[in-house]
Amino acid sequence: MVDGKLLTEKLLKYAKKFLHLNERDETYMRNILLREFGEDYPASDVGDLSYIEELSVPDILVEEIETLGLERGKCEEGLTNLYSTYIMGILSPLPSKVNEDFIKIKETEGIEAACKYFYDLSIMNNYVQKTAIGRNLKWEYQDGSKYLEITVNLSKPEKSNKDIAKLLSMPKADKKYPACLLCKENEGFKGTATHPARENIRTISLKMGGEDWFVQYSPYAYYNEHMIAINTEHTPMKIQRSTMAKLMDFVDFFPNYMIGSNASLPIVGGSILNHEHFQGGEHLMPMHKAPVKEYFTCAKYPQIKVGIVDWYNSVIRLESEDRDAIKTFAGDIIETWETYTDEKCFIYAETDGVPHNSLSPVCRREGNKYIVDMILRNNITTEEYPEGVYHAHPEYHNIKKEGIGLIEAMGLFILPGRLKTQLLMIAEILCEKTEYNEVELSNPENYLYAHKDMIKSLVEEGLSKDLADAENRVTNRVNETCKNILFNTAVYKPDENGAQGFKRFLSTLGVK
Ligand SMILES: [Zn+2]
Questions:
Q1: Does 172 score more than 80 pLDDT?
Q2: pTM
Q3: Burial state string for 384-423 with b = 16 or more CB within 10 A and e = fewer than 16
Q4: How far does the centroid of ligand 1 lie from the alpha carbon of residue 193, in Å?
């Protein structure tokens, strides 16, 4: 049995150390917690709780809160995280206080210190679940002068049968509130079986392009200090000229972070198109580190360096200290690309009135210089490629089937968690720990069915002498697949026709 009085004292000690609980508020907060835990008076002797101040994540306390919640009927099996999130929310400073402190730290110690305050708070109040994220498999694939980052995402909790049964028995809400996962109304939201609890989320308000926006860290933390900037209005994604001012206002506020937008069309646009948002953060992506392969000049804006990036897909890089010029020229690119057709390269701005061209602008600063990368995207489908000509081709769907959004386009692949077990099983076939049975693998019920062609091709290349060698070969195959998927997304292929096509597009912008 969890001791509610003792847990209260542990949480107070924790909140004073990590969640900025003011000493003046301690008695008040103690009474709140005692009430929440159904206790009438506080502990008289708590012993040595100094270890609480050494914690780097709140996990052990979260576990105690959830156990207590179950024991005292505060929450149901399968939904215990709703209760721990509620308690962590109570212990966290109010949104107004977080905003006030963030700005104060930014002004006195600088933006890096302010971000550290905000990120540490997001980890220590269990909004960004660092331990779960740390379980992800991660590696780098060095490919000549370029590299990719690959993550097998194990932090998304798998729902148990019990959870699913619970979900099915829940009555459907008559109103969708909050309207989506990004809406500002998530701040403090209690959560349901299908929508995460967000009592512990905190956001920072800022103006971007003259509009009210806010930022929060991503709970999935696909990379360090993974931030999301979100429009306060629930308004759809639309890449247009005005997008650039928003991105540039972001990097002026956060010169230590990069920021980019998903393209605003299905297939190429990431998973949430109905609420305008950008992805940013401290981490620089493999694309950012890729050099320019050829520089050009623009007659209209001689102060901007224009380059084609030495990258798998089609990226234009703009560099200049002249903010207005780069903003205007990037806007020109957005508008020109939207209606641009080049039959020789199978690029059609629209077919039957359906638009296909969009792009992902990505912005960052290096001192006074602005660097804008524009990833050209197209979502056309054909009979041969019903899921998209510039989407991962079917032979690679065993590794990644979902849309290739901004983060992947920049070279950071997030692969499904099922691959951890599946890749090991494939390696065991390759080194003959498990028998290779082509007939069984052709059964759609087989766990490795999606991989049957890849397994066949690996087996045909020869068997491995041991598991280590086999695992190596499987990883290499995944690496090659990710690279090929990025080539699939390139509207200008890395050949003579593609190179000429790319230059044709640049020349319509006055770039030579
Ligand atoms: Zn929304």
A1: no
A2: 0.95
A3: eeeebbbbbbeebebbbeebbbbbbbbbbbbbebebbebb
A4: 18
